[in-house]
Structures are given as structure tokens and as C-alpha cells.
Amino acid sequence: MTAAAVLTTALAQRRERPGVELAASAPDLVAAAVAMARRFRAGGVLHAFGSADADAHHIAVEFVHPAIVGKRALPAVAHGTARAAFRLRHAAPCDIALAVCDAPVPACRDGERQRGPRAAVAALSGGTRGRTLGEGRVAAPLVPGESGTSRPGEAGPVAVALAAAGGRGLLTIALAGRFWTGPDVDHALVLPAGDPLVLRELQVSAYHLLWELTHAVLEHGPDGATP
Known about the structure:
Strand content: 5-15%
Oligomer: single chain
């Protein structure tokens, strides 16, 4: 096999394996969707935010303006990263907070950030299965510099916003990479990708699946169809 063929195969596996593992995490996505549907039934509003404001707007538009004819519009708003924590502190307790989290580089054994070839090897290594880390809140330490905008020793704005939402009583959902840790959340969907670009693809797929599954639960779920 030529070097080009080896590289092509490695790059394909780098994308395909996380996708297969995302499919294996279907029960976790369903659990989050069921919880979201219950909040929508109670009159809740979805608050979307994340490391990239584009994701927040994409999610909000997806819920407010369904692309599929016949699907009901669900209340959703997008928040910029810098203002998300402030706005969530004034949200209703029955609302939902959905965060698309950044992917920090894993730390070396001596506590330093990986750089150069070591970072590349870490990005190409295999991942763990996507999972919800518990029905109740999951304790995890805040990670410094989670969004790239905070100083050492401080939590990033996405983590701060999630903590504010949890303290207010909102349903909290985090779409995160393997190396992200954050505040206690109701559903931490850890996506199996070390490469930030692959993680982005998985996050987009995950929040589209959450949209579809939430509608499925609202229409055919155990609590009956929502009028």
C-alpha cells in the first residue's frame, strides 16, 4: 500500500470511527430529548449558546423555524457567549440550556498543554463512546480557558453560563468533546473526537438529532402527543 493510500485510509477512519460511536450513543441522545420535550410541554424555552455564536443561532433557527413541513415551532433563543451567563440568570426555571462546548487541547503529564507532534498524535487517537454522564447532575471541575477567552485559573464563559443555568434550575445539556470538563449538568453528551474539526461535525449532527428526537417524543412519546 502506498503512503498516499495509508494516509487516505487513516483520515477516513479518523472521521468514520467517531461517527459510528455517535450512533452508539443513541440512548443518551434519546434521554436528553425526552427531558427537553417535558420542559417544552411545561412552557419552557430553549436557550442556545456555545463557543461559536453561529452554533447558537443555528440551533435557535432550527427549533423556531422547522425545516420539515408539519413540525411545530418550538420557542428558542440564541445567546452570544459573552452575555449568555447574564441572560440565563434571569431565565425561567422550566427553561432549557443547550451548550455547544469547545474542545481544549489535552494536558501533558506535567500539566502543560500539548503542542506540535504530541498534539497531532492526541488528535488522531481513538475516542470514548459518547455518553450521558448521569440522569442527575454530574460533578466535574471547571477547566481553565475552556473557550479560549478566559485567563489561566478562570472558567470559560460557556462553563460559567452552564453553571448559571444549573443554579437557576434550568435543564442543562452540554455537547462536548472528550477533553472538556465543566460544571454539573443534567446531560453531558461527550462526543468521541479529539480533533476539533471532527468534533464540530459531531456536534452539528448531535443537535440536529436532538431536534428530531424532541419532536418525535412530543408527537409519540410516553406522555402522549402535545397539542
